[in-house]
């Protein structure tokens, strides 16, 4: 059964600066404990990642996924193409400028391929949401101080 959750964070940066960090998928292991590696398989016309192979580990479960990214001026999203642990996954970053800051909303839906106890799935989702928001915020601010 698919599980969906979301989280918001305000980052002291422009949407463009935040999207640049999201687009640097190879650096995701630096700010997301779940990411063990990332490889861009192809890029879109603007040079942003299109198809990406990810190595992930959460709650002791390892997975290698292939996802397809889509980009707009105010967000990024991906959908799962291949995985050994999930039937489906989709995620979206929506960026809303608020003066000198940007509100970032991250939403994710996952459907495990095998039964996972609810509390394990909930903890894994929480860790993913924290990495996707708090981890992203720390990486953006780190780059700004650069």
Describe the structure.
It is built from 3 helices and 7 strands, in the order E-H-H-E-E-E-E-E-E-H. It is α+β, with helices and mostly antiparallel strands. The chain has a single domain, classed as START domain (Alpha-D-Glucose-1,6-Bisphosphate, Chain A, domain 4), CATH 3.30.530. A 7-stranded antiparallel sheet has the order 1-7-6-5-4-3-2. A hairpin with a 2-residue loop joins strand 4 (61-72) and strand 5 (75-83). The chain is globular, with a radius of gyration of 15 Å. The termini are far apart. The model has no long low-confidence stretch (mean pLDDT 94). This is Polyketide cyclase / dehydrase and lipid transport family protein. InterPro entries: Polyketide_cyclase/dehydratase, START-like_dom_sf. Pfam families: Polyketide_cyc2. It comes from Mycolicibacterium hassiacum (strain DSM 44199 / CIP 105218 / JCM 12690 / 3849).
Quick overview:
By secondary structure, the protein is of the alpha+beta class. The chain has three helices and seven strands, in the order E-H-H-E-E-E-E-E-E-H.
List the helices and strands and how they pair.
Blueprint: E1 3-11, H1 15-23, H2 28-31, E2 35-40, E3 51-58, E4 61-72, E5 75-83, E6 86-98, E7 101-112, H3 118-145
Antiparallel strand pairs: 1-7, 2-3, 3-4, 4-5, 5-6, 6-7
Helix pairs in contact: 1-3
């Amino acid at each position: 059964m698919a599980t969906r959750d979301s989280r918001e964070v305000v980052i002291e940066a422009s949407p463009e600066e935040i999207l640049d960090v999201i687009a640097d998928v190879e650096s995701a292991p630096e700010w997301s404990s779940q990411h063990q590696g990332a490889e861009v398989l192809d890029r879109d016309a603007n040079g942003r990642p299109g198809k990406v192979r990810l190595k992930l580990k959460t709650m002791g479960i390892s997975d290698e996924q292939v996802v397809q990214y889509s980009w707009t001026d105010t967000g990024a999203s991906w959908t799962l193409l291949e995985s050994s642990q999930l039937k489906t996954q989709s995620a979206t970053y929506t960026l809303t400028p608020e003066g000198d800051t940007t509100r970032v909303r991250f939403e994710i839906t996952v459907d495990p391929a095998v039964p996972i106890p609810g509390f394990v799935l909930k903890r894994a989702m929480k860790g993913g949401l924290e990495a996707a928001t708090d981890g992203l915020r720390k990486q953006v601010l780190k780059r700004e101080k650069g």
